[in-house]
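Usage example:
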Amino acid sequence: MSFSLLANSIASGLLMGANYALFAVGLSLVFGVLKIINLAHGELLLAGAYVGYFAIRGMGVPLPLALLFSGLSVGIVGYLYYFVVRRIRDDELNTLILTYGVGVILTNLFLLLFTADERIINIPWLTEGVWLGPVQVNRGNLVSGLVSLLIIGGLTFFLARTETGKMIRASSMDREAAALVGVDVERIDRFAFVLGCALAGFAGPLFGIVSHINPVGGEAVTINAFILTVLAGLGSIPGLLLAGIILGLGEAIIVVFASTMFQGIFALALFVAVLFLRPEGIFGRRE
Amino acid sequence: MGRRRSEKKIAGVVTLLVLSSAFVFRRDPFVAHVLVQASLLALISLAWNILGGGCGQISFGHAAFFGTGAYVSAILTTQYHLNPWLGIAGACVSVVFLSLLVGVPSFRLKGAYFALLILAYAHVLKLVALNLEITKGDEGIFSIPSFGRYSFGGMEVNFFTSKGANLFLILLFLIAGLWTGIWMRGSQTGIAMEAVREDEVTAEAMGIDTLRYKLFALGVSAFFTALGGAFYVHYIHFLTPDSAYSGYWSLMPIVAALFGGIRTVTGPVVGAFTLVCLDEFLIKELLPRGDKLVYGLLFVVTILFFPRGILGTWVERQGHGRKKEG
Amino acid sequence: MKKFTLFFVSFVFLLVLPHKGFGETVKIGVQYPLTGKLAKHGQGCLEGAQIAFDEFNSRGGKLKAKMIVVDDESSPQKGVAAVEKLIAREGVIGINGGYGSHIIGPSSETAAQYGVAYLSVGGVSSKLTARGLKNYYRVNNIPGYAKAQLGLIRDVFSGEKKVAIISNSKVATLDIANNIKKMLESEKIPVVFFEKFAAKTTNFDPLLLKVKESGANILIVEGYFPDYVATIRSAKTLGVKLDAYIGAWGVGSPEFIKELGPLSNYIYGTSLWEKGTAPKEARDEEKTFVDLFVKKFGKDPSYLSMLGYIGAKLMLEAAERAFERGKLNREGLLEELRKTDRVTPIGRVAFDEKGDPKYFTCLIIQIRGNDFTVVYPEDRKNADAVYPAVPWM
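Running the assembly step on the lines above writes:
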């Protein structure tokens, strides 16, 4: 085994991990604040990916604009979606079934509207390799990874420093207590939910760049996002990035020494181990 | 007490209904097959609900028990040439054992964490099935035997060709599950399980050994789920990791239970029959391609307007009506 | 007024008459996964089958055909439901379709209980034909794919050859990989790297790095669309020096070029059929199909649509022969289907006693610019292979 094999694999694993975090951040935020597992998360992300696909490939919209556009349109969908979810939000199980149903509706809408064709958002300059010191990485992965850092950093800052962010944190820790001290928890919930959906939509086009768009691929995104959320610890946004990196790095190194066949086992073993040993997540706070 | 009696009445009506429909349609293979699918889903949904609705422990991964039951029976019958009835027995015993083994550590977790842990088990087991020699990997196991051919006093029953015979068999399992559920609910155990569901801390304080009751519910639930899985392989005759540990077996039982009503024992059965029959006979006829879209809309609407499920809502209305009369 | 009514009634009568009075209608079931994981494949095949039925019904023969479509939702138990529905409810006498061996298995077995012919185009597991069913036929199988890849490497490529094979762990792709590995080794062409990868692998960089270290100059990837996209991307990122990149199925679909653009250039793949590759005897048939397809769907047909078309058409032709013999029923159709032997746009089709195709071989295509060129076998090729060449160098 050469140095370049190991170093390159580590680099690709790091970037992949950052991307995983980006694709999970919407679900994690909603779960953390509203305690709702949004099982339609993956489908919302795909909706964003489709918007991005048609904007970029059909209309030649530049990437940053397409990202904002995807985030905005899925955010609007999320706003409508919230009013449906709100009606039954007190029952955990019913929210699961509702969000699952919304996912089924979206998947089948994609199939009807866009057919079962698989698509990728192919931007030529993003498919190049770039040298980062001694290693070569894919530019698309790099851009997506940097966006991930930006989003997660920005969101962490927002939650820690701004007035609204503090209210969100208060509400997510103890809803009743937050309401008692005058936080409009209803408004906070709505805001966090819509933001979570918009983040999923925003990540969509990047998903289309580093992976591929398939109308039935939403479920896998949701499950991965969930695993990451649990690893990170409920609602821990910076933890998401670290959890993603542990996963991405582990997967890459496993291929170096064995094969990709063990990646799945690794991710799940990590998941189960964390649930047993630190159910509050690797970076979660003990209650 | 009145609620329990009405539960029994409902279960009795449902038992009669499914049996008579099986009798009417036993010679119409298409309807019989649809009813088999409905009964199978009903059985697993009911089993899921013994743990979920009865004991408050939500599992997202019942495919783990379904798929393992299916694999055990398939392997015992194809590679060790056991009779399918013994295959089923072996499947049930080993899956109950497996469930208790994973149950002890898993019950330390609560709510969504427990639910997802079970889902992770299902994924791990699928990966195991994909990579083992004995399960034939991704290719899967072909030509799994059916329940065979018997004749009772001149009447020929061929499980290989007759959908009707299989329908009666799965209904037998379903009815056994249904009445086990009814019996459990009325017993001391059922009351203790309800206490665990409503408030675990208080139950513990009252001296209830919560872990024991949770394990009991899990064992029973796993037993009937494995029964369904083992039935499935001897009915379909093929098994791949994808079909054994398919998300269908984890999610649809929950959907059916919620649709029917998880606070009742019979609800999941009503839910499963309604969903499968609606899908096959109505939605698919009207919309050959967009049927799943309607399906999605259907359960969004149900959850929004009948959050206690069809049967749950109905039972509740009955109850209110009676109160007013009295 | 009365006269007009009379005229109108007789006019309507005349319109209706040829359909009801003189001809007969045969019902053929078409079962494909139109939703779920395999929806893409099922929908592609179905579109082709639709053309076969349209063509059959507009040819002016006495026999008309009715296509009854049922979606099996990519699930084995729904496949059984579909077959039961088609036979017991709709009364079809032959079934066409199925995609994926695990769905075709139980579906064809159910059809066997009724003695109804089941002709599939999307099930390649060797176990399907090992069951000894009398009603099961298919037009493609695994060895045909590996043979074509071997031919390309052995006969077309020149110079030193060191082959790396990576394969999706799905049974169909792994089956081709094992076949080609054995064939290459018996031809004394060294296979310097062989590894399977898990379905849904997202990060291919480490695996491609291993390929790079192995010193291979020819890479075979037995996989599916997402696998090709990801491996090509990784190979480009890492600058893996290769002389050829060979894929299996999926390379030959129009979306491959459409989605990958210049990144698809020079890639080789196996294909059952590409526009303009039909053997001489079947050129006209191919042209008719393509024209009808473009007219109906406004796009070029993929190999999946061609498969669906051929499956349906062979079934309909058997029905027609059975009709002429006065034996238009399950047995008649099955007997006639067994006798099939003709050159189709994907080559000669005839079945052995197990239901496997006797003459099936694949084409090797190479993408050039925005088009597919056929570079192997010799008698069907329309261009010379560009070798060495990969899109990223």
